[in-house]
Description:
Elements: H1 2-5, H2 11-36, H3 55-58, H4 65-79, H5 91-102, H6 107-119, H7 124-140, H8 150-162, H9 166-177, H10 184-190, H11 196-213, H12 217-250, H13 257-267, E1 280-282, E2 288-290
Antiparallel strand pairs: 1-2
Amino acid sequence: MTASLSRVRGHFGVLGAVVLLIFFAILQKQVRELGSGATALVPEPPKFIGISIDPRIVRRFLGVRLLVADLIWIDTMIKSDIRHEEMPFTAFYRAFKTITQLDPDNLFAYYIAGLYLSVIKDDVKGASAILRDGVMRLESGPYAWYEAWKIPFILGFNLLYEEHEIEEGSKWIQYAAKMPNAPEYVRSLSTKVSTERGQLEVGSRVLLDFYRRIKDEDQKKQIEKKLVELTVKLEIADLNEKFEHFLESTKAYQFPRERAFRLFLQSISKRPRDMLGRPLVVNRLGRIEALKEPKK
């Protein structure tokens, strides 16, 4: 956000943008009061200024476009919370869509919006849409952000982990791996992203990176929950790989499924439960899975 604000140009541009945003804020407040009444006891959810502004109008004001985009960014991040709107293309998405329309060269905005929409807001469709916009910007010409590889990488994560689009998600992880400045772990993951374990490792990397970035305790708890889910899935994926190797190396596939499974657990000194204490079983396809706890 600090880097984005460094592009503010000229006192007249600042004044014009501030006046414009104040106007929209006052208008927004008046509409809210008319709609809810002054005696409302329960406050409404925060309303983002970005969804009230038409980028086509702002672009007519010379020298103001980038500043308005920056101020909408500030407003959106200050008002954002972990409330799930239970619908695609949330208000948060629409606010950041305005930002990227006003400032399409701000690649960091696509990355932050996609990450937040996917991990915190659970707006899967909104995340994919804004990240695809970011990839299109990358492909349209030169860019300056040295970590631009993160945009296709997060798009791949969202498609793999949230939308379960394995083929397309793998394509974008591999795309990110070929970009300048992509770290070694991205190149390594791109070679095994077609496997279940590889996909889960992509998810863990993204969540850990976001966890280190944010400060809000409620958001951290939400990511911790997702990380626990991924860790459990990684454990079971690892067990399945070892189980397949055990069956091949010992010819135990000739035994009844349950007996082969018990022998396998004994061979690795593993109790028949996952990290959360749920019973482990072998399903009809011969894959190890954890029994889900019955709903109370």
